[in-house]
Write a structure and sequence with these properties.
Strand content: 5-15%
Radius of gyration: 34 Å
Helix content: 55-70%
Shape: elongated
Low-confidence stretches: 105-114
CATH architecture of the domain at 119-252: 3-Layer(aba) Sandwich
Number of helices: 31
Largest sheet: 6 strands, mixed
Distance between the termini: 83 Å
CATH topology of the domain at 119-252: Rossmann fold
Number of strands: 8
Mean pLDDT: 84
Structural class: alpha/beta
CATH class of the domain at 119-252: Alpha Beta
CATH superfamily of the domain at 119-252: ABC-type transport auxiliary lipoprotein component
C-alpha cells in the first residue's frame, strides 16, 4: 500500500487534488452569489456542484496518467518495476469517488436548503414620524406593499391580519417564519414629515435569520407608489417568482395622483380593519367619501367604500340606502377601471350580501381572485357562498385555504368551525376551534362558540359554566360586562334556572344595545323566565316589548327573513298562533333551504318550534326529522334539553325520531 501512496506523490496527484478542491470551492461560492442575481433556476447551482463532484475522480485519473512538461502534456512514465499498475488505478478511482460522495453529502443538501421557497410575510412597519398619529400611514405603506405582493400569483403572501400580532414584538425571525409558514420576512420603518416620506426596509431569509438586502427611499408623498412597486418587483426577483405582464402593469398603476386623497384613503382603510366596531366603520365611511371628494377618479377608494357599504348592510343596517350605495359604488369603480380586482371583489360582495345572487357573486369573486391570488378574503367569501349552495366539501377547502393564507386570523377558523358544526363533524369543529383559541386564548367570542358546541354535541353546559365563573372574577369593561350578562342569561335559560336567567337579562344595560335585535333577545329571555316563574303579567309585558322591537326590525328591512322569524317567536309567546305561523312560514318562503343551505335551516327550525308550541305536533316532528337528516345546526343533544319540546317528550314519535338519529 505504501507503494501506492509513493506513486501518487511521484505523479503529483496530491497537488492536483488540492488545486481542484480549491478551484471547485471557489466556483461554488461564485455560483451561489451570482446565479440568484441572474435569475437562474434553483437547479442550476446543484448542477454545477454535481458536475464538479463528477470531475474530481476524473481529474485524479488524468493527473495519474499525464504530466505537464516543457515539451507539453505527455503520459507519465511508469516507475521502475511499478507493481500492479491496474490495481493502483482502481484504488485511485475508488478514493476519488469516495471523496466526491462525501463532499456531495454535505454540499448538495446545503445548496438545496439555502434555497427559499416563494413565500413572504410583511411585518408591521415601525412609525418613526415625530407625530405618532401618523402610525396609520406606516400601516398604510405596509398594507400597500402587501397588496402589490398579493397580486403575484407565483408567491404565497401572508395577510396583514396574521402579521399584526408581531407589532413591536422582539421575536426571532426564524420563529416568525416557522409560525407563518414562510421563508422570507420583510421588515421596515416609515418616517413622514410634511409631504416627504422616508422608508427603510430589509429582506431577511427566515430559514437562517440571514440579511439578504436592504433599501432606503426618500420620496415625495405622491411618489410613494413607486416605492411600493419597486419593492414588490425586487422581492419577486429575489424569491424567483414569475411576474406576468398583467401583474407588472397592475403594480405600476397609481391609484391616485392626489396626496391628500391617498392619506384619507389610508386612514379609512386602517379603521376599516375592525369590522365589529360600528363607530369606527362610520369614521372609515366618511374618510373614504373624503378621498373621493378630493379625487373623484379614485377607483380603489370607490371599491373599498362599496365593500364597506355591503358589510354594514349585511351586519348592522340593511337599509335601502346602503343597498343602493353598495351597488352603484362598485359599478362606478369598474367603469373607471374595468380590470380592477378590488372592484370585482366589491361587486361580488354587493350581489352576495345584498342581492343573494350567489352565482353572480362567485363569478365576480373568480375575477377578483385572478388579480388577488393571495387574498384570503376572496377564498373566505367563496367558501361562504359554497356552503349556502350546499357544497360543503368545496366550502371547507376554500375556508382552509383562507386560514392558510391568514394563519394568525381567527375569522377563517371560526367559519370553519361553523361549517363542521353544521355537518355535525364535531371532531373537526373542535380541532379548528382549538386552533383559533391557541391564537386568541382570551377571546370571549371563541369561548362562547366552544360552549355552544358543547351544547350541540353533548347537551351540557360545563364549558359555559367554567367561563362564567372565570369571567365573573375579572375586572371587565362595560361592553364585556354586558356580553357576560347576555351569556349568563342564555346559559341559565338552557339550564332552566329561570330566576338567575331573569336577573342576568335585567342586568343588560339598555344603552348597550344599538339595534332592535339585541332588545328582542333581552325581553324574550325576561318573558320566558317570568312565565316559568309564574309571573304571567310580567311575562306578557316583556313579550309585548319584544314584539314591538321585532316589528320595528321588520319595518326597517322587510326583505330580511330572519327578522320575520324573530317576530314569529314573540307572537307565539303572546298566544297569537295564526300570526306566528304566518310570519314563520313567510321567513322560510323568503329564505328557503334550496336557496341558502346555511341560514335557511334556521328559519325552518323556527317554524318547527312554532308548530310544537301551537300544538301541531305532526308538522313539528316531520320538519324536525328532516332537519336532523341533513346538515343543519339542530342536533339530538339540543332537542333533549330544549324546554320548547317538553310537550312532546313522551310522544312515541319523538322518542323514535331521536333514536333514529343516534339518540
Amino acid at each position: 500500500m505504501s507503494g501506492f501512496f509513493e506513486e501518487i506523490k511521484r505523479r503529483k496527484v496530491y497537488r492536483v487534488a488540492v488545486a481542484y478542491a480549491v478551484g471547485a470551492g471557489g466556483a461554488i461560492q461564485l455560483a451561489s452569489a451570482v446565479f440568484p442575481a441572474w435569475d437562474l433556476p434553483s437547479w442550476a447551482l446543484r448542477l454545477v456542484i454535481i458536475v464538479l463532484l463528477i470531475g474530481f475522480p476524473i481529474s485524479l485519473i488524468l493527473a495519474w496518467a499525464l504530466e505537464v512538461t516543457p515539451e507539453g502534456i505527455r503520459a507519465t512514465p511508469s516507475a521502475p518495476a511499478a507493481p500492479r499498475r491496474r490495481r493502483n488505478i482502481v484504488a485511485l478511482v475508488g478514493v476519488g469517488v469516495i471523496v466526491s460522495a462525501a463532499a456531495g453529502f454535505f454540499l448538495l443538501p446545503r445548496a438545496s436548503a439555502r434555497k427559499m421557497d416563494k413565500s413572504i410575510a410583511v411585518l408591521p412597519f415601525e412609525n418613526r414620524s415625530d407625530d405618532k398619529e401618523n402610525a396609520y400611514f406606516a400601516d398604510g405603506i405596509q398594507d400597500d406593499i402587501l397588496t402589490n405582493l398579493s397580486k403575484i400569483g407565483d408567491l404565497k403572501v401572508i395577510s396583514r391580519t396574521s402579521v399584526a400580532p408581531y407589532r413591536d414584538k422582539k421575536i426571532n425571525v426564524r420563529e416568525i417564519g416557522k409560525a407563518l409558514g414562510v421563508s422570507a420576512i420583510l421588515e421596515g420603518s416609515v418616517q413622514k414629515s410634511g409631504n416627504r416620506v422616508h422608508v427603510n426596509v430589509q429582506l431577511i431569509n427566515a430559514l437562517y435569520d440571514e440579511h439578504i438586502w436592504s433599501e432606503g427611499y426618500d420620496r415625495d408623498l405622491t411618489d410613494v407608489f413607486a416605492i411600493q412597486t419597486d419593492l414588490a418587483q425586487k422581492i419577486a426577483q429575489e424569491l424567483h417568482a414569475k411576474l406576468s405582464p398583467t401583474e407588472k402593469e397592475q403594480m405600476t398603476r397609481k391609484p391616485t395622483e392626489n396626496g391628500e386623497a391617498y392619506l384619507a384613503f389610508v386612514e379609512a382603510h386602517n379603521l376599516n380593519m375592525d369590522l365589529e366596531d360600528f363607530p369606527k366603520l362610520k369614521q372609515a365611511e366618511q374618510l373614504y367619501e373624503r378621498a373621493l371628494q378630493l379625487d373623484p377618479n379614485f377607483a380603489l377608494a370607490c371599491a373599498r367604500l362599496s365593500q364597506l357599504q355591503s358589510w354594514i348592510y349585511h351586519t348592522f343596517e340593511p337599509t335601502a340606502e346602503r343597498k343602493e350605495k353598495s351597488r352603484t359604488l362598485a359599478e362606478r369603480a369598474l367603469q373607471m377601471q374595468p380590470d380592477l380586482a378590488e372592484g370585482h371583489l366589491a361587486l361580488g360582495f354587493s350581489v352576495y350580501y345584498v342581492d343573494r345572487d350567489y352565482l353572480r357573486a362567485l363569478a365576480e369573486f373568480a375575477l377578483a381572485q385572478n388579480g388577488l391570488p393571495n387574498d384570503a378574503e376572496v377564498y373566505l367569501a367563496t367558501g361562504a357562498i359554497q356552503r349556502r349552495q350546499g357544497k360543503w366539501q368545496e366550502s371547507n377547502a376554500n375556508l382552509e385555504k383562507a386560514a392558510n393564507l391568514s394563519p394568525n386570523d381567527t375569522w377563517p377558523l371560526q367559519n370553519l368551525v361553523l361549517n363542521y358544526q353544521i355537518q355535525r363533524n364535531f371532531d373537526a369543529a373542535n380541532a379548528a376551534l382549538d386552533r383559533a383559541l391557541k391564537l386568541a386564548p382570551e377571546s370571549f367570542n371563541l369561548w362562547s362558540l366552544k360552549a355552544q358546541m358543547e351544547i350541540s354535541q353533548k347537551g351540557t353546559c360545563e364549558i359555559a359554566e367554567r367561563g362564567i365563573q372565570t369571567l365573573s372574577s375579572r375586572k371587565l369593561s362595560d361592553e364585556q360586562k354586558n356580553n357576560l350578562a347576555s351569556a349568563i342569561a342564555q346559559t341559565r335559560l338552557a339550564q332552566r334556572r329561570y330566576a338567575e336567567a331573569l336577573q342576568a337579562a335585567e342586568n343588560l344595560k339598555d344603552d348597550a344595545h344599538a339595534n332592535a335585535e339585541n332588545w328582542i333577545g333581552k325581553y324574550m329571555v325576561i318573558g320566558i323566565s317570568k312565565k316559568n316563574l309564574g309571573d304571567e303579567t310580567g311575562a306578557r309585558e316583556a313579550f309585548l316589548k319584544a314584539k314591538q322591537y321585532a316589528e320595528q326590525n321588520v319595518k326597517a328591512a322587510p326583505d330580511e327573513a330572519k327578522r320575520h322569524s324573530r317576530l314569529a317567536e314573540a307572537l307565539v309567546w303572546l298566544g297569537e298562533k295564526e300570526a306566528a305561523i304566518a310570519e314563520a312560514k313567510r321567513a322560510t318562503e323568503m329564505l328557503p333551504e334550496s336557496v341558502d343551505a346555511f341560514d335557511g335551516p334556521g328559519c325552518t327550525q323556527t317554524l318547527a318550534e312554532i308548530y310544537v308550541m301551537t300544538g301541531d305536533y305532526d308538522n313539528a316532528l316531520a320538519i324536525t326529522d328532516g332537519l336532523l337528516s341533513r346538515p343543519t345546526q339542530m342536533t339530538v343533544a339540543q332537542l333533549k334539553i330544549n324546554p320548547l319540546w317538553d310537550s312532546v317528550r313522551q310522544d312515541p314519535r319523538f322518542i323514535a325520531m331521536l333514536q333514529k338519529h343516534g339518540g
